[in-house]
């Protein structure tokens, strides 16, 4: 039993210190030895410890942690501090270093290699951006205070233990890709897992379960392109079920959210392909989770939500023989017509065939941004150019019949890997957008495609003064995997389309303007998407933080079991990521800073 257990319920009757909040309705704050009690109207909260609180660990505690992690602890300095005159009172401006940062802000790899930066900078509160005036002081905003640049598994354990014992907010930061800001948190201790790059293959998996085929074990920091490249260089080459973005991590948020991707219609979700994990629990225990050992944790880690049950240190996934593939690009844009009604009709026709694409094992990635339809690519595994053209013939016939102009290109590849390298484009980071999204089922496509397209139109222009778009995926993770025992939303099994909705927000806006934008996303775009998919669902990795009834929206009828498992594996709330199981009693108070639990 730890100190915090004993102190968790200390009474509230301590001397209130000066209000530290700009929230007018927080009436009093009191520091206990290991938590801060805050009272807001009639509600009392126990909060994590923050800089300035009595319970915030003193320098000797941080130094001791630093010794435990062999000097890998860093005070966080935002990467763009060099573009500002000062950070925390010290001069930081360096023109050359700032130019270097500005040169890199459109490179995904640069972002993922940083200690704590989050690619969707809204979640840092944009208080130290490289392109804002240098006179403006750089501050941490919503970023952690300290980060452990872990190079050994024991460093991860040390960070978890410290956060639990000192009641400090803990953030696991892998690549910083999280669209919803979950790899960032004000005043937190972050553990950076980026350096765990081991990849090892086996031709025949010998662990528990039915799978006797090939497998690969990856460290927590391995990113998709690294894994795909390693799999391709095997002899013979193998395939792994992963996502389309080259710099997303395979073993962090991606797998814990479920993970869709290029081979998803063949192999299901990434979570369907997980054979085993090694992890460290909230209590600091090293565990293995597979079909035999800690089977309940194994189940929850496969889609039950990021940063919720344990910190993953390695993941073992199935591998499959490589295969040929064909790909097609389709564009309908201003080079073809400026009549937006014609373009939208083209979108509707394209999307109406989603079930056909999935029935043929396809994955399709497309964008509806700036009034254009850009499908790049249709992926047809195990097919040649003639094969993909035959499957797509009804699409082109329907576009022709409706007099929709378009351009298209089809290519043949000797491997899925070659197709991936040639046809998938890196997405630009450093965007300031809110996102939401929706899983559409086969039935939605066959019964309600016009409503779906209407929700896309809403997403593109949800309210006066707002601009958005759609990043779409045609994928059918139930096509070839009808059952797999894990935590992903059951709606994925009948899905054939999953769309992310984007809403652009300016970098420099007030909290009220942000709230207004969030409401537009949730209640204009989101309502339209939900109405078009009564049996659909939402995806925790690419969803709306304000999703109504998020428990059901993200997990359907699997939620009650996940809640139970969260209470079992993280009973003290060491981990926290918004809209993950068991976080109902937690709130981030004081304008996005102080993480507190309702008493
Ligand atoms: C450009 C882009 C493309 C994408 N493409 C796809 C796609 O094709 N398919 C798809 O399904 N999703 C995709 N995503 C979404 C992606 O799955 C999520 O952003 C995911 O959270 C990224 O995980 P990460 O570990 O790389 O990122 P991070 O932001 O570092 O972490 C995300 C979450 O996971 C937690 N976490 C990280 N590592 C661990 C660990 N070892 N143990 C426990 N918790 C951990 C973090 O604390 C955080 O809550 C994409 C996102 C972007 C930005
Ligand atoms: C941790 O120790 C290393 C090596 O001694 C040092 O460089 C670093 O500044 C220390 N970190 C903190 C936060 O003091
Ligand atoms: C976050 O940004 C808002 C809007 O600029 C600002 O009012 C607030 O003080 C910032 N909070 C932190 C912790 O940076
Ligand atoms: C389904 O997956 C298996 C491999 O697990 C493969 O042999 C089969 O051809 C796939 N079928 C389709 C249509 O996706
Ligand atoms: C659409 O408008 C743009 C900008 O005016 C123009 O360059 C383009 O040629 C137009 N497209 C067509 C098909 O007329
Ligand atoms: C528009 O279509 C043309 C022709 O296929 C293509 O080259 C171009 O990249 C497309 N533009 C956009 C914005 O997708």
From TrEMBL:
Position of the signal peptide: 1-19
UniProt KW keywords: Oxidoreductase, Signal
Entry keyword DNA damage: no
Oxidoreductase among keywords: yes
GO molecular function: FAD binding; oxidoreductase activity
InterPro entries in alphabetical order: BBE, FAD-bd_PCMH, FAD-bd_PCMH-like_sf, FAD-bd_PCMH_sub2, FAD-linked_Oxidoreductases_BP, Oxid_FAD_bind_N
Residues in FAD-binding PCMH-type domain copies: 140-322
Family: Belongs to the oxygen-dependent FAD-linked oxidoreductase family.
Protein name from the UniProt record: Isoamyl alcohol oxidase
């Amino acid at each position: 039993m730890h100190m915090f257990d004993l102190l968790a319920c200390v009474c509230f009757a301590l001397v209130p210190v000066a209000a530290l909040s700009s929230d007018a309705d927080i009436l009093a704050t009191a520091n206990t030895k290991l938590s801060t009690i805050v009272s807001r109207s009639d509600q009392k909260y126990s909060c994590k410890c923050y800089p300035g609180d009595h319970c915030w660990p003193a320098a000797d505690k941080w130094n001791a942690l630093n010794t435990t992690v062999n000097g890998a602890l860093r005070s966080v300095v935002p990467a763009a501090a060099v573009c500002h005159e000062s950070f925390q009172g010290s001069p930081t401006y360096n023109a050359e270093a700032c130019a270097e940062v500005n040169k890199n802000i459109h490179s995904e790899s640069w972002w993922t290699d940083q200690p704590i930066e989050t690619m969707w900078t809204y979640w840092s509160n944009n208080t130290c951006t490289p392109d804002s005036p240098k006179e403006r002081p750089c501050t941490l905003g919503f970023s952690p205070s300290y980060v452990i640049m872990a190079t050994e598994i024991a460093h991860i354990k040390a960070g978890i233990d410290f956060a639990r014992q000192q009641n400090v907010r803990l953030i696991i930061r892998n690549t910083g890709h999280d669209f919803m800001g979950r790899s960032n948190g004000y005043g937190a201790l972050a553990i950076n897992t980026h350096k765990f790059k081991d990849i090892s293959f086996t031709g025949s998996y010998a662990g528990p379960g039915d799978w006797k085929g090939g497998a690969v074990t990856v460290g927590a920091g391995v990113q998709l392109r690294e894994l795909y490249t390693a799999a391709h260089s095997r002899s013979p080459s193998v395939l792994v079920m992963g996502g389309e973005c080259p710099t997303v991590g395979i073993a962090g948020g991606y797998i814990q959210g479920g993970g869709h991707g290029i081979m998803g219609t063949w192999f299901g979700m990434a979570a369907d392909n997980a054979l085993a994990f090694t992890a460290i629990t909230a209590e600091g225990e090293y565990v293995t989770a597979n079909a035999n050992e800690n089977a309940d944790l194994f189940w929850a880690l496969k889609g039950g939500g990021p940063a919720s049950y344990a910190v993953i240190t390695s993941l073992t996934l199935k591998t499959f023989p490589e295969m040929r593939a064909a790909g097609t690009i389709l564009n309908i844009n201003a080079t073809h017509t400026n009549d937006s009604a014609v373009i939208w009709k083209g979108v509707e026709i394209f999307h109406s065939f989603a079930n056909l694409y999935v029935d043929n094992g396809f994955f399709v990635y497309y964008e509806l941004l700036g009034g254009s339809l850009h499908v790049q690519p249709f992926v047809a595994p195990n097919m040649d150019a003639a094969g993909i053209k035959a499957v797509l013939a009804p699409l082109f016939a329907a576009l022709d019949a409706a007099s929709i102009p378009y351009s298209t290109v089809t290519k043949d590849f000797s491997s899925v890997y070659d197709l991936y390298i040639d046809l998938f484009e890196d997405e630009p980071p450093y965007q300031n957008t809110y996102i939401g999204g929706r899983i559409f089922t086969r039935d939605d496509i066959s019964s309600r495609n016009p409503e779906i397209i209407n929700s896309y139109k809403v997403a593109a222009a949800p309210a006066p003064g707002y601009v958005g778009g759609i990043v779409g995926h045609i994928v059918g993770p139930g096509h070839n995997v009808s059952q797999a025992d894990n935590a992903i939303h059951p709606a994925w099994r009948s899905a054939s389309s999953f769309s992310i909705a984007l809403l652009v927000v300016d970098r420099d806006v007030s909290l009220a303007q942000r709230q207004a934008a969030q409401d537009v996303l949730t209640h204009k775009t989101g309502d339209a998407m939900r109405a078009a998919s009564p049996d659909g669902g939402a995806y925790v990795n690419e969803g709306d933080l304000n999703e109504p009834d998020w428990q059901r929206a993200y997990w359907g009828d699997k939620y009650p079991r996940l809640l139970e498992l969260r209470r079992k594996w993280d009973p003290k709330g060491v981990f926290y990521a918004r809209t993950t199981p068991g976080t109902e009693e937690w709130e981030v108070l004081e304008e996005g800073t102080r993480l507190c639990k309702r008493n």
